[in-house]
Amino acid sequence: MSFLKKVCFHIISNAIAIYIAAWFISGITFEVTFLNLVKAGALLGLVNSLIKPVIKLLSLPLIFLSLGTFVVIINICLLYFVAGAFDFFTINSFWSALWGVFIISIVNYFTATLSDK
Fold this sequence. Notes:
- The chain is mostly helical and 117 residues long.
- It has one domain (3-30, 39-116).
- Helix content is 79%, strand content 5%.
- It has five helices and two strands, in the order αβαααβα.
- It has a two-stranded antiparallel sheet.
- The protein is globular.
- The protein starts with a helix and ends with a helix.
């Protein structure tokens, strides 16, 4: 798969994951339009590919001490960051963000396995 196809696939995957999380979790609200989904999916992909590795590297001792569970806190913070960047995407509570991260991770895992085949 070419680089541009991979980027587009990840944007669409993140958009679908955000849509599913907003649909299942009452604490996550998302004004669903195609353009909003693309914006949020692109920013989530950008944050996950550029900012997340740096934060994980800086917080490596905490990740080690917590046996990896601090990565969940990092993911929640990054999801809050993406939601805070847009007016059409809001997260009401920590628990909503936790379940949102869980659903987004599962959807992205399944779409990544589909792209490998």
